[in-house]
Amino acid sequence: MQSIADFLSLHLLREIGIRRRLLLAFVLLALLPLLVSGAIWYADSTAAIAERTRVLSTEVVKQVAKNVGVEMAKLESDSEALVLSEPVQAGLSAYQGGDEAAMTQARRDLMRALLDRYGSFGFVSQKYLLDRDNRIIDTQVFTSLGRGVVQFVERAPKLLGRPWWSTLTNSSGQTSLVLLRAIHSKSNNRLIGHLFLGLRPAHFATIFEDVDLGQHTEVAVVDADSGQVLVNSVEKIGGVPAAAPPPALLGELRRSIARSQKSGFFGHDAQLTAYARIADTNWFVVGSIAQSRLTMEAQAMLETSVLIGLAGLFGSVLLAVLLARSIAKPLDDLVDTMRASAAGAQVRPVDIQGHDELTILAQQFNTMAATLTRNQEQLEERVAERTRDLAAANDQLAALSMTDSLTGIANRRRFDEVLERELQRAVRGRTPLALLMIDVDFFKKYNDHYGHQQGDECLQKVAALLQSHARRASDLAARYGGEEFTVIAADTDAAAATALAESLRAAVEALRLPHVDSPMGVLTASIGVVALVPTETTTAAQVLGLADQAMYRAKDQGRNQAVYSQLRLRS
Length: 571
Known about the structure:
By secondary structure, the protein is an alpha+beta fold. The chain contains 16 helices and 14 strands. Among the domains are: 206-294, PAS domain (Beta-Lactamase, 2-Layer Sandwich); 412-564, 2-Layer Sandwich (Alpha-Beta Plaits), CATH 3.30.70.
């Protein structure tokens, strides 16, 4: 090795003039690091942009899915108010087996109630009431359209107090989003008819107006069952018909349903797609962007870096030419001093006498060494300060992500985590776990009468009351959504859970918040209670379902009461 180094440095390179040697050295020193660092930087920046896109797009589609779910919940609540109203209940009862005159009058009353409720809603393109035999109570409906509606109702799953969302395509190829709700008599809870609402998909397109994932990005609502695009941001913007989703994407959406996965990120067909499932449906909000778009930013920055590197390379070559003309012993002294400084732990100043360019270079080196030392100290201090600020911001963000912004108690995300954790803990310890589902009675009417500001204050008072009744640190009061709250009580059996629910109900009533649109005259709550010793096969969804069913029984039995779930989980 020594002989090879001697041959290259003392023989071969000595055949080349010193000016050319210096020029070649400057070119290689400037060009090679530029190429290597540029390649590494390009790969790292592309990966960072992809990760940032994944996080951002996933959060955006999750928020859009939540907003769509909120809009659907509003329509469900409004339809529930209609089917429980006296005109609809009385009209459908009179329509069942009455004489011709009574049926005619009932049909008029039902059509009037339907038009009064939805006649001003332009996005409701189809609105029908059907009797218990699935016959449309509207003699003017077209036969083909009526047959399609009846067939839709007949193939719908059995509705147990919950509305069903699906799609219906008519003979002209137009697709409507359908809300179907079974109507039961309030007197005997028997099925007396159905409410069919066909909605224009463009109604939900307004939710996309505040969504921006960047240029050339599409956001849509996709039905995983039928493979249809229900709502499309491109259609909203330019009137372009929605293209069918790629088979690979549909396969991923259907697999996510089987996995009970609510959201995800999937690469397919040179596309990157974030998706989030809309609650209680097999519909997904998807946002897609071409993979090639992710590298454009990195390519632009790389091109800029190349230009800067070429400019630096040109300057290096020019400097090499100039320095080669004045190389002498002072340069050797300067190089020796720099090498000695580089070998030590501390950069020492260069000591060169004279008034030529090398003297200026030595002075600049000394200034640079001092500046480098000072900048390094400042950089270390700034990095430490930024690290502290980042840690504080992360702590604050973690707290906000687990807290409901209106009431200040735990939010749905925190509730899901705690319920899953307490369920596993109860399985390990073979201890009982109780869950209370609380719904503020007639809260929509409260909001309509007293206004949203007072409605928010009402929810805050109820949340504070629930929080004050959490007995132990392991208990959790959370806002489940809207006017619904939950309380998780660990190591609590049925008797204690029922007593806790009754005390909460009485405490809400004791607030004596006036409610003129409630039969009780004051604000009240209906509470569903479940307490059980879970097994390894027990899931959070099962426990939540029992509490939810018990709460609905409390509402069906007249509200302002706590009902314990008598149902048992299937083994």
